[in-house]
Amino acid sequence: MTDLTDAQIDAAMARGKLALESEPRAAAARYDPALDRMVIDLTNGCTFAFPPRIAQGLERATAQQLADVEILGLGYGLHWEALDVDLSLPGLLTGLFGTKAHMARLAGQATSPAKAAAARANGAKGGRPRKMAHA
Fold it and tell me: Which residues does the annotated region (Disordered) include (predicted)?
């Protein structure tokens, strides 16, 4: 086990202080029912909003449950006690609204005119081809 020196501890404290001053963290969080959005005011003056239906654990939450949001720790997370849901603010800001499996399900639900046209064309040909075993 390595003992830390005072210089290493001071350097770590300086990095932590810089992170607190520069990284976006939640200053306030609320649910806006008119927009159907979770609205997060960040410590850097920006505001981030997302529809709760795309976030894992919030898909079927009521307006009252969504409104009961808490900021965790130093502002790096959001918590909904009644739903037993925790979301990472850095994850949300990078577009991660849940686990890898949850995100894959969301991607599969995406619809567009091009996707609908391709599905119709494929259906007209008899549907998806069967998988063939490779010899």
Answer: 116-135
